[in-house]
Amino acid sequence: MNIKEKLAELNEKGCTLTIQRHAVLEYLYANHTHPTVEEIYYSLKKKFSAISKATVYNTLELLKNYGLIQEITIEKGKLHFDYEVKPHHHFLCHRCNQVYDVDVEGCPLAGKEMIDGHKIEELRPYIIGTCSKCLKKKG
Amino acid sequence: MNIKEKLAELNEKGCTLTIQRHAVLEYLYANHTHPTVEEIYYSLKKKFSAISKATVYNTLELLKNYGLIQEITIEKGKLHFDYEVKPHHHFLCHRCNQVYDVDVEGCPLAGKEMIDGHKIEELRPYIIGTCSKCLKKKG
DNA sequence: TTCTTGACTTGGAATTGTTCTAATATTAGA
DNA sequence: TCTAATATTAGAACAATTCCAAGTCAAGAA
User: Fold this and answer.
1) How far is the CA of A20 from the C1' of D10 (A)?
2) Given a cut of 70, is residue A138 above it in pLDDT?
3) I need a surface site. Which of A92, A95, B105, B125 has the fewest CB within 10 A?
């Protein structure tokens, strides 16, 4: 889903499209690197020096609740965010703390609505390890 | 793996078996409810009134590094721990914040060592939703 | 056993990440 | 343009975790 579609959806659903909200969504659209809240905040500060951390948190929460972005809890103690909401695996390198997308086919949970009597609402398939770049450094 | 085997493994590897470390491992062995650090700390306080939070954190980190327990980052902002280290899915209910084990067969990552050039060291397959108990409450 | 050294634990301070709050600013509709 | 509702701001408050210095304990040497 491109950014115009997401903005249109927000608009349709009656969400006020402030410049800050636009900026946060735009930032995630331009940076598919799974940034942390801190990274988003400091990057936006460069353009909108008055933007507040609370606004960044509120906006991320709002976009998440509209189903337009994805929250990632792969790294302990801090949140990452992803523009892409289609279910896909995330890989965290415990050396450089970079989060990568990885493609895994054949997940048995795909499309499932219930498991053990619990209602499935979101999949968060995470993998921890050492990324290709850090493997090379090792030598 | 039962607790005696884990204690033996610690001993073999030259890890000092203090009463605090024993207590933390014992607590996880007796409570397969995926407790948070806070829950572990306050439960142990009842028996060992002098135990410090730092020791609980240090011990959990140590046991994790020995591969004897598992850290769970399913809930934002806080850690849960699991005595069981065999890969299995965890389900977080976003209403009651309870973490459940769920059984999912046929994970395509099982046994895999590499993905996209990254070295896989740990799988963290998480699912978010509403648990069976909370689904009943809803009505 | 006593001594010594290194490892472990403690309590509290410091740090980090997130949420809350009250005041101000902006928006959309009348 | 006015009004009421909503959004943003700055900083305080809060929660989870890590750090630190001091004291304690454990294992091996004498």
Assistant:
1) 16
2) no
3) B105
Give yes or no: residues A102 and A72 share one domain: no
Q: Please tell me whether residues A72 and A34 are part of one structural domain.
A: yes
CATH number at residue A125: 3.30.1490.190
Query: CA A12 → C1' D17, Å?
Result: 42
pLDDT in tens, B33-73: 999 999 999 999 999 999 999 999 999 999 999 999 999 99
Kindly determine whether residue A76 and residue B71, on different chains, have CB atoms separated by under 8 Å: yes
Task: Say yes or no for a CB contact (<8 Å) between B91 and A122.
Answer: no
User: Alpha-carbon distance B130 to B77, whole Å?
Assistant: 19
CA angle B65, B81, A60 (to 5 degrees): 105
What are the tens digits of pLDDT across the range A35-61?
A: 999 999 999 999 999 999 999 999 999
CA distance B136 to chain A (A): 10
Nearest protein residue by Cα to C1' of nucleotide C7: B16
Number of folded domains in chain B?
2
The structure tokens listed for A110 are: 């795909």
Over range B2-16, report the average pLDDT. Answer: 93
Domain containing residue A71:
3-80
